[in-house]
Structures
1.
Amino acid sequence: MNRQQAQRIAFAMLWLAAVLTILVLAVIIVYILGQGLPHLSLGFLLEWPHAQGREGGIFPTIIGTLALGALSLVLAVPLGVGAAIFLTEYTRPSPLTSIMRFGTDSLAGVPSIIFGLFGFIFFVTRLGMGWSLLAGALTLALMVLPTIIRTSEEAIRAVPMAFREVSYGLGASRWQMVRTVVLPNALPGIITGIILSFGRAVGETAAVIFTAGTALNLPSSLFAPTRTMATHFYILAIEGISLPKAYATGAVLIITILIINVVANALITRSVLRAVRR
Amino acid sequence: MKERLIGYLLLVCALVSILSLGLITFFIFEAGLPLIFKVGLRNFLFNATWYPSGKPPQFGIAAMIVGSIWVTLGAILVGVPLGLAVAILLAEIAPPALVMLVRPVIQLLAGIPSVIYGFIGLTILAPLVRQLFGGPGLSVLTAALVLAIMILPSIISISEDALRAVPRTYRDGALALGATRWQTIWRVLVPAARSGIVASVILGMGRALGETMAVIMMLGNALQLPRSPLDSATTLTSNIGLEMAYASGDHRSALFATGVVLFLFIMVLNILANALTGQLVFWQRRVSIWRAAVNFWRRNGLVRDRRAP
């Protein structure tokens, strides 16, 4: 075998790997949607579940998912964007910033089950929140914090230095410069990070089960337990309550994630265009 | 005055992640360590009998450690060649338009909830494995195959970054010496990007080791030492996930102690990966998608870049 043949074979294998990867994704999506869509209807989205979800819809879990996702972002976004502003605009690389970075990166690598254990022992038990929307949202907020910090940092760094110089030249203070020049220009990137974080919050199960509970009801207050779509899907599937309902719930989950990713990608492309045209 | 106040406020924001890492460490250890001391570290780690309701109760996690190692190594064995191949393709061979097509696919793979992966393993792969190879179907093999897919995004994105970071001159030099493109890739670029690729493997290991819900759904959850890839097993994570719901007293502490062991494993992997890349690596793609997109538009002259010289 000469080296040209070796190259042909090697490249064929690489293409095969890529095709396989795309194929796997296609199989997952087509399978879940194919099995789930026939059981999906407007009623399924808007009705209350009966008999642990064997009958009826998933309305409360949709509300639970949205509430939990939104609340965790409300908690995480100011902290994450604030941290990103500090790391990019308010400090130089120093031992302190490398400690902060170590914290962020390690937090990104901590498995969700550990977050679940922590949320349970700290928020649920020690702080006495019980299984609740708030405990779940606080735990999720810590989980998505690294993503928000990193994407915001990158977006802020992409704002041209000249913008800052002009702003300073006009006599703006540092915070005025950040607020009126840096943040508006970095906004699309920051929002992309937020949207992807919401996706992570929607799909999370391990951490949510131990902190927000599995109660099948509308979260009436911050201290009420709730059940998310992902948790509901897990319980339907693993306890064998109803396979058709599980497929339908899975389809709703997949569609949600698809929408989130499409929106995020559209934003990336659009803001890249804007950033480069400048 | 206001300026300084805002500065301090932002400093506090930036400290939150390291503080919460500290809090997590403290509370997990506080809840788990007493039991490890009570049972004895050696007994806890090397006893394969987990029987929390026995008299006296037995808390040995050896079977779960072995289960975790099997599943993680299996995922790496399948996931690394596949991921590395895709990374090489994206970094070196595929035209930019294809790269822009494949990248969202990988981002989507990363975004699919782990319960969905577990469900796919449970409903598609497990019956297939049972028919083809025998055994219960819910097995180490099934879990490892699905986990291999789940860790692909981490492996692909970090390896691709590492490959792209190899200086242009390496490529040009090898090609000028008459090497084929494949020889250049395999003998020059991959070795040059070695540390980044190894880091991606380590972070992939961390993901596989830490995955919980998908593993619960696919592994059969038998409390035994797996003897073949077709056996059911339990991992550190799946045992915590299954038993936390009803555990109390020493049993609950033992689950936290399992969490301590898992946490230590993960932190060692994180620190290793960091040391390897020389900088702290973020295991998800997000950031690089942005950078790559900018480069793509620029390269193709779709937009003019006034900042370029």
2.
Amino acid sequence: MSATRFVDVCGLAPPEPMERILEALRTLPQGETLRVHIHRQPYPLYDILAREGYACATAARDDGTFELTIRHTG
Amino acid sequence: MNTGALSLDQAPPISVPWRFFLTAPLFGLATALVLAWYGPAILESRWLPASAAAVHLLTLGFITMVMAGAMMQMLPVVAGAPVPHPRLVAWGLHVPLTAGTVALVGGFLTGTRGAFLAGALLLATFAVVFVAVVALSLARAKSAFGTVNGMWAALIAFAVTAALGVPMAWSFGRGAFPAAFGLWRDLHPLWGLGGWVGLLVVGVGYQVVPMFQLTRPYPRLMTWAVAPLGLAGLAAASLLPGTWAPRTAGTIAALALAVFAAATLVLQSTRRRRLPDVSLTYWRVAMASLAGAALLFVARPAWPAANAAQLEVFSVLLAIVGFALSVIEGMLLKIVPFLAWFHLQARAGLSVRVPNVKDFLPDRPARWQLRAHVAALSLLLPAVGWPAAFWPAVAAFAASQCVLGWNLWRTAWRFRTALAQLG
């Protein structure tokens, strides 16, 4: 199983969550997975991820927040 | 649930909204010059030609200018239907609005008939293009009900405001002023400020307050009720003049706006993270001003006759500078650097590190802008009955517009520089 990194951006004002996620992806080694805890669906991010060749799965948590699992498809 | 999403494919080119945003402070500064030229007497009544000039520099040159640009940006996001030929449409809106405002204001200041006629034609062009483009997009909207609802109500109010204003400007140009226009003169600012500006801020607020200020969402009933109540109130006030209905309907509409302002202040006070934020403070000033202006309108029958003209000017200042300018300046501080970062990030891809939002517009100059604005408002309001406050008020207002312009233009310049470095 590949290594996983975790970023919690819950409660940060836009666009800081997106800035932090993209920064984390920039330094993410090939083959690793990034898990993100976030308080709302980051719609603008999905478009950027798709363009950059990342797959993103979004799961809703019981507390109303979301968990994203992002990995490079290349 | 807010389903609005900023998609790279649907977002218009950055030059589309920016041309509107970057123009606004120039009209703000022009307003300060008009105030300085005419002196404290300009605040004695809203019926003076110079007062009308100052009001239209702000309502058309600043407020409508930014709101038109923001609509071009938000429509594809909210409606999911991009505005066709966005650059061409932006030209078709920006040029007639800018030139029409200059012409109309020139008409008020010089009494030149040709200026009124040119202003009426140009602003009619802007109104027709704007209503057509926005209606087309909103008709395709499928999501974000509260916001779309508010945008429709605001668009209708804009169309009515223009339909009342353009014929008045045209008849000034013809040297006539029919008696029926007496009522129009009262309805025009009511639809413009209460409807066009007020209801659009309500509609947009449902999205941006929870999103940017990390508050709970607005109560669902409110997102359904405020815009229709406001619109119905304005319509009843216009269609049934001289009866008990306008007063009651106007009161309901004003109270609906006051309830929105109060709800926003409550949501902000219970937000999840209590970090200081310039934009949030702008919103708080705006909501307090909106509630104040709405309650002053409700209390209008109780105004002492001797101070009625002053109270009218005070209410207009509260609505325009206290409410509209505060909320708009607060949002510009968020939107302009965000768009710079977003477009640059999209262009650069993930492999290149781009400047972050705070690099485009740091907190410090944003705080200076807020301070200058609050100083201007705190001095302009008492200047209505206390002329000694007038000159410091004008100086503070001019300074606030200079700082706003500096912040916006510098962000644009930094964007261009960063873009050039990308190659």
3.
Amino acid sequence: MRRLFRLPLRTRAAVHRDADDELQALIASRIEHLVARGMSPEDARAEALRRLGVPLDEASQQLHHSARHRERRLQIGAFFDDVAQESRYAARTLVRNPGFAGVVAMTLALGIGANTAVFSVIRGVLLRPLPNRDGDRLIYLRQSANGRGASNINFSVPELRDLRSGVPALGGGIAEYSPYGVVLQSDGDATRLTAGLVTGNYFQVMGLAPVLGRLTRPSDDGPGVPPVVVLTYDFWRRRFGGDSGIVGTQVILDGRAATIIGVLQPAPFFPLQMDVLMNMVISPHHIGAAMQNLRAHRMTEAVARLAPGATLAQAETQVLTVYARLQREFPDAYDPKAGFRVAVIPFKQAMSARAQLTLWLLMSTAAFVLIIAAASVANLTLMRNVRREHELVVRASLGAGVGRLRRLLLVENLTISLVGALLGLGVAIGGLPLLVSLTRRYSPRADEIHLDGMVLGFALALAVGVALLLSMVAFLPNEHTLASVSGGGRRSSGGVRKQRLQRGLVVVQVAVSVMLLAGAGLLTRTTMRLSDVPTGLETERVITMSANLFGVNRTQPDAAALTRQHYDRIRDDIAALPGVRRVGIGSIMPLRSPSFFLDITIEGHPLVPGDPMPDGAIYQADPDFFAAAGIPLLDGRPFAATDRDTAPKVVVLNQLLARRLFPGEDPVGKRIQLSTMGGMFSGGWRTIVGVAGNTEDGGPEGEPLPTI
Amino acid sequence: MAMLKGTLDPLVLKTLSWTPLHAFEITTWIEDRSDGRVQVDDAALLQALHRLEERRLITAQWGVTENGRRARYYKITQAGRDHLRAESARLVDHLGAVMMILSARTAK
């Protein structure tokens, strides 16, 4: 750096000597003056020292100090003067070459803009601390088992009860929350909402505060309490226009009156965004006996807060200890073959896990774009410097040192790369909405993406980095060139080295470009292939909708009949619409992941001990379901209107399950029995009446799921 | 007599407004012009010169005196002249006010 910022630096000793010399000169002059007026040399000396005002040593010390101070300030001042002068010169040079300046600035703008935009996403989603109080002490608990769809099987209430009592390291509390679909009714209008049903300690564990009213508390738990609603910030703004008088209002949710008690601060949710948060009393199921008492009834998410002073490692050890004990004590709830396990994950990490890979991939892509941009600009600069070499040599021979020339180039490059960064910020601001909507698919924190101080700093750092790099590659006239210039020669410096460097830059550009293009091409191809995967049904002319039925109390004796009436009316109403050819009703749409898997027993095939129990995903369907969705029937018949109610129970298998259960046999006419822990669908033999084509419900890349 | 606070810098600048001088010439000139009534301590003068140089109101260069002695010659800069003009106007105004107060007739 000393070479870069070459200044008339003087050592401390030299500065002191200078000050002392001046002091001695003054004393000598005075003595000379006094002697000339007839004073004796001794008296003259005494008088001169008296006139100092302070003893000689002290005067010397004072002057050392003031001289040092002076030197320092003058150096800094001189530096800024030079830089200001060079900046003016740089600006003039660039304005004189608008083409060059424009191309370079635009190129850098693209590179810096892309990086700034992606960095702002990474900052918002991965780096920025959670808005929750002490957000880094929040823990997400995840239970999983082997098999598809079991990577997160949630927790049961008894499991969490045991973890609460057995894990002191999570002494900040363990809260339950589960997404629950509710319907908000207002005048002539109904909206489906995602409600988070939470325990009373949820907000205290999460470290969230209300912006209006209050949040739920432990006294809101249990059955005998009125249902209360906390609006999320987004929902409050979207649905109620940020009405500050909303607290205390009654709304109708699932046909029941509930009171809005508060509005929550803006906060991201996981695993899905919520509209409102409620106490559990709205859901009979959540406060019911099965949910509260069955250990294998795993239907709630769990979030926890570390106790003061406790570490993640301690929490993990303790959770694993308790979990191992539970597995020993309740073998029924933890099938040893299913590989039950539990993970203790920082909440922030759980939240960003899906986004992480994509974002870093994007970041490195952006980095490569910047590399290409910088290489292009470096090449341009090199070529321009060939033309400028004469000017630089002249400047050097006029006394500008090499360091000074380098600084001149640095200032020029800084000027242009800062202009590039400014334009790049424009690019980033323009591209950010696109990135935010992309990120929304991967992370609940997309709303936290902003261009903040750190992002601006990042852009600035990129600009400075690029400028430094550009100034390093430039070749400056050295002693050899100077000699050749004074000898009459011109333009010869470092020809071979320069060509090698330029070639190297081109190689880098081409290599990185090919890599990026190939990557982008592959990605596009994959996406196109994915959309071409045969899904097993006609997607072109099928539309879907989903509806919640409420208003039917499921404990009513005639609930089943009432429900059926509802569905019949919906079907008839839709079928009456012009342009509708067929209407089918089923429990889960094709191509969506099913939620229930049932164990299957085959008549006449006793289970060989040690073999896993065959299982299948359950879908419920009405007779027109296959035809309406365009799922081909390969064998037998679809459901018929006569299969209802008291008629013998029948099932349709998909091809995969049929082959798995009855290899080489015709499954139609065979009987199977279904069983699940909840007890639904169990009881009685069901006759297989048909085999349908497979649909790609496990995601288009997955193999078809065995389906009934 | 001790120097009035804040008056040394303008006096030095005023001295240098004619021609570049070294420290001894400056102090002699001030003494002569005031008929010996204003005496500056030499150490204080040198410090003032450092200070003025630091503020870029004057510049310095080593030179040789008529008597063949090495001395640091000081020269006023444009910024120094501007400063002198503003500062002497302020000082004269202030001293005038002080004089007015002190020369007011007092009750016996």
4.
Amino acid sequence: MARKKTGIEFEGFEEVLARLSKLNGNVKKTTEKALKETHKYITENAKKTIAPHKLTGATEESLVEKPTIEWNGTIATVKTGFNIKDGGLASIFLMYGTPRIKKDQKLYDAFYSARTQKEIDKIQEDIFYEEIRRIDS
Amino acid sequence: MKDLLINTLLTFNYPVILQGSLNKDEAYPDSFFTIWNNDTYDGNHYNNNPINYIWDFDVNFYSIDSNLVNTKLVEAIQKLKKVGFIISGKGHDVASDEPTHTGRGINVLIKEKGE
């Protein structure tokens, strides 16, 4: 990595999006809110798992804490992870290991595990449904 | 599924070892693959029981030849896809303990039918 790009991917997203649009909901704002919460969830978990590796603190400090939403047409994504330029090089050793060093599975899982993906899907889905309920009530 | 992965990679005639398993004093082979099973989780369910499982692996290739690092991993992607592995993208750089070697890695998934 050490950067991961995440979009809105939960099951049934297309239908939820159509419903929100039909209600004249603010799709852009809701999408950005969902991605910011996604970033927060991943980054907080990564922070917890990187803490035991604190030698100089450089890797922890290179964790990108401010979410930047990128729009490419109608697709929005947010990047999470470590900034190599800001001292995050060690994150590559930790995330993937080396032939002599085992990877830090917990740190890897904070970004990539099926459990993390499930949690992200739920966070995003809840935000969209919350917005639909708010407009529809 | 692990056997299928190892056997497919062995057809390239390079050693296949577990990531992190090489001893401190053990020399790197000139070129080699490493693998690591990140997780094996439930796929789809029927009647609250998993009907299949997803195996999630890292596959890395290290070499003293930096060109080989790029080309061999791309060949591995093609071969692994042919036997049923799911791979997205063309990989990422991975760290080496030895300055003589560089490496690249991919994430590899495969579905296994449940009992």
